[in-house]
Amino acid sequence: MTAALVALAAVLLDAVLGEPRRAHPLVAFGRWAAWLERRLHADRRGAGMLAWGLVVLPWLGLAVLLSVGAARISPWLSAGLSAVVLYLAIGLRSLGDHARPVARALEAGDPDGARAAVGRMVSRDTGALSESQVAAAATESVLENGNDAVFGALFWFALLGVPGVVLYRLANTLDAMWGYRTPRFERFGWAAARIDDLLNYLPARLTALTYAFCGRFAPAWRCWRVQAPAWDSPNAGPVMAAGAGALQVRLGGPAPYHGRWETRPHLGEGAAAEATSIDRALALVRNGVAVWLLIGLVLAFAVEVLRHA
């Protein structure tokens, strides 16, 4: 029951406070990772694996020590620590904080403002995007980050507590920093990308299933099974295909990266993306979180009843 209530508290903290503007631990972690990468970088997988371990393991060890120590001192201290750590790991409110300016700019007839806003969400070149492509990029980002920044963190917290959510969030951050197929990171970032794929395998599929149940189930399931295998990411494919099907919107397709257009499969079905697609994607994620919290609370209550029966 405690874990379910902690998850609820963390989501409420995120809704009220949003992402910390100053001194976010992930910012400090990112600086540490960037500093170490500059000193250990080599065009070898082994160098990337060593760097990953040196970056993550000290923080993971600290999380284990704090978690065990808090539990020995007081269950209330343990619950408070868990709620704060989980709050810092999830980014439900920040999804809206980043995505809504894109939708509002599109609705106001300001494509340049929308391109600038979506450029803060995605790594692709946004200057050449049409309005529909801008909306699609923002919608894709909301759906994918619904898994990376929300559902994945909730899953690993439920499974392994504070150490689990810390491991997941740091691995996900390193994948975002090093997991690119560029000359610099093709080999060095291999470990970061593969570890993130492994940690996201189950959460991504639970996220896809959540999108299906919270949207149009049949199209979501069909797009997931048919379109996701063609996507280059084994986890982003199911998440975005199911989300696009659930929303009945067309995503994917060619996109510009690093000065050239890359061919990507199409995802979803139905209408082309527009400003309302972004808002609907945000609602899909929020509804999914509500379902997860409700299921967690019901299961925890049922376990407590059985224990005292």
Task: Provide an overview of this structure.
This protein has 309 residues and is mostly helical. The chain has one domain. The longest helix is centred in the middle third of the chain and has 48 residues, at 131-178. It contains 11 helices and 5 strands; from the N terminus they run ααααααααααβββββα. Strand 2 (255-257) and strand 3 form a beta hairpin. The protein is globular.
State the gist of this model.
With 309 residues, this protein is mainly α.
Question: Could you name the key traits of this structure?
Answer:
11 helices; globular; three-stranded mixed sheet; mainly alpha; 309 residues; two-stranded antiparallel ribbon
Oligomer class: single chain
Record the strand order, biggest sheet. Answer: 4-1-5
Q: How many runs of DSSP E, i.e. beta strands?
A: 5
Low-pLDDT residue spans: none
Strand content: under 5%
Rough outline? globular
Number of helices: 11
Mean pLDDT: 94
> Helical content, roughly?
over 70%
